[in-house]
Design goal:
Blueprint: E1 6-10, H1 17-28, E2 31-34, H2 35-48, H3 56-60, E3 68-70, E4 76-78, E5 81-82, H4 90-93, H5 96-100, H6 103-117, E6 122-126, H7 129-133, E7 139-144, H8 147-161, H9 167-183, E8 196-199, H10 205-220
Parallel strand pairs: 1-6, 1-7, 2-6, 7-8
Antiparallel strand pairs: 3-4, 4-5
Helix pairs in contact: 1-10, 8-9
Length: 222
């Protein structure tokens, strides 16, 4: 019987985690779990309800109402609504770090994430997977890239998807999210002591994928 392997990939916004993680999971036949999409889905629900995402108490009060489901094809459902496209729009991007900083919301979503990882081989990406969500993961990768490179990627991605934005707004959003993610009191963004640092600033997507596959092979022989 093939052993269960758990891969944790962390890093700041737009470092390429989701693209690389999704491809690596497909190549290895693992399940890809996009934790960022879960926090984005929660953020979209908060906004739909007319609640200020910076109001922790009001946002956390919605926890019992939020039911998030991730599908293999990338579709994201939140309490019966398809939010796949909405969660990538600037309004959600600009507020998701507030929602992700709230301890009660993180605890609720982390419980789901750990349950999924306990049942199958997974590649899970996020901000605190290797440090908090899955501290015993078999493989931990911390992906980084320069602010300029990350902003370039996010701007190009938004243009391809027809999501209106300006390059200046993207740079400001990336810097703001770095600041919030790294300074939050509960489970902040930081590399796990036993993680492998991978700078993707000068790597193509294919090169980044191959680099992660090599790290996994070196660690567990996959």
């Amino acid at each position: 019987m093939k052993k269960r392997v758990v891969v944790a990939i962390d890093g700041p916004a737009a470092a390429g985690k989701s693209t690389v993680s999704k491809a690596v999971a497909k190549i290895l036949g693992y399940t890809y779990i996009d934790t960022g999409a879960m926090y984005r889905a929660f953020t979209s629900y908060v906004l739909d309800k007319g609640v200020d995402p910076q109001d922790e108490k009001a946002s956390c009060a919605l926890i019992p109402e939020v039911k998030i489901t991730l599908y293999p094809d990338g579709k994201v459902m939140c309490s019966g609504k398809d939010v796949t496209r909405i969660i990538r729009e600037p309004l959600v991007s600009g507020n998701v770090s507030y929602i992700a900083s709230y301890k009660d919301i993180r605890l609720a979503l982390v419980e789901q994430q750990r349950r999924m990882a306990g049942e199958q081989s997974v590649v899970m990406d996020g901000r605190d997977i290797g440090t908090y969500v899955l501290p015993n993961a078999d493989v931990k990768v911390f992906m980084v890239a320069s602010v300029k490179e990350r902003a370039d990627r996010r701007y190009k991605e938004n243009m391809e998807k027809g999501i209106p934005c300006t390059y200046e707004d993207i740079v400001a959003d990336v810097e703001k999210r770095d600041r919030i993610d790294s300074s939050r009191a509960f489970a902040p963004l930081k590399p796990a002591e036993d993680s492998v640092r991978l700078d993707t600033s000068d790597l193509s997507i294919e090169e980044s994928i191959n680099a992660v596959l090599k790290i996994i092979k070196d660690k567990v022989g996959e």
